UniProtKB/TrEMBL annotation:
InterPro entries: DHBP_synth_RibB-like_a/b_dom, Sua5-like_dom, TC-AMP_synthase, TC-AMP_synthase_SUA5. One of its GO terms (cellular component) is cytoplasm. Signal peptide: none annotated. Residues 13-198 form the YrdC-like domain. It catalyses: L-threonine + hydrogencarbonate + ATP = L-threonylcarbamoyladenylate + diphosphate + H2O. Gene3D superfamilies: DHBP synthase. This is Threonylcarbamoyl-AMP synthase. It is found in: Cytoplasm. It comes from Vreelandella subglaciescola. GO terms for biological process: regulation of translational fidelity; tRNA threonylcarbamoyladenosine modification. It comes from the Bacteria. Required for the formation of a threonylcarbamoyl group on adenosine at position 37 (t(6)A37) in tRNAs that read codons beginning with adenine. Catalyzes the conversion of L-threonine, HCO(3)(-)/CO(2) and ATP to give threonylcarbamoyl-AMP (TC-AMP) as the acyladenylate intermediate, with the release of diphosphate. Belongs to the SUA5 family. TsaC subfamily.
């Protein structure tokens, strides 16, 4: 069962710890991101990923984006990556560029979807950075909406979409501001440099 619904600022260590406990218990949380409110979970929890797909009514074939506080947190995901491919990562992270990185076997099936790459980004959003640091690793980050609907822009909207009345409870709702961006991150293919979302 989901835990209580703590709200916290990035400076509230007790509430941050409560949200991290929810993540470690295989729950989905709602949190502010760079441009919209998002849903996050442990990318290595099959139960959490399955719940996330159900909550969003998302096609599992699409996969999801994984964010980290630093490139060091992505070390297992980047193992065996050719050295030449590191340069674009180092010059664009942290920042609003999501790279499709060849999967080395680290990405669970529901993270990768029907792709041979995994979508990775080192976030520059302070709240997401704090969450990833407290959790001790990367987190799934996807917009807080049902498939085909507009994303939540506030905690209240996230609760209205995913609260108990809709049958899908959130483990926590993280208080804090959005990052001030007006559009989602770019998505680029690391091997070719091709831009898939401007």
């Amino acid at each position: 069962m989901p835990t209580a619904d703590p709200e916290f600022s990035q400076h509230d260590n007790a509430a941050l710890a409560s949200a991290v406990r929810a993540l470690r218990n295989g729950q989905v949380i709602a949190c502010p991101t760079e441009a919209v409110w998002g849903l996050s979970c442990d990318p290595h929890s099959d139960a959490a990923l399955a719940q996330l797909m159900r909550m969003k009514a998302r096609d599992p074939a699409k996969g999801v984006i994984v964010v980290a506080a630093s490139i060091a947190q992505f070390e297992p995901w980047l193992k065996d990556l050719p050295y030449a491919l590191y340069a674009p990562l180092l010059t664009s992270w942290p920042g609003p560029v999501t790279w499709l990185v060849p999967d080395n076997g680290t990405a669970p099936a529901l993270v990768r979807g029907d792709h041979d790459c995994v979508a990775l980004r080192v976030t520059d959003h302070p709240g997401m950075q704090a969450l990833c640091e407290a959790f001790g690793g990367p987190l799934v980050s996807t917009s807080a909406n049902r498939a085909g609907e507009p994303p939540a822009m506030s905690a209240a909207e996230a609760r209205a979409i995913f609260g108990t009345q809709s049958g899908a409870e959130l483990g926590a709702v993280v208080a804090g501001p959005l990052g001030g961006r007006t559009r989602p991150s770019q998505i680029r293919d690391l091997a070719s440099g091709r831009m898939l979302r401007a």
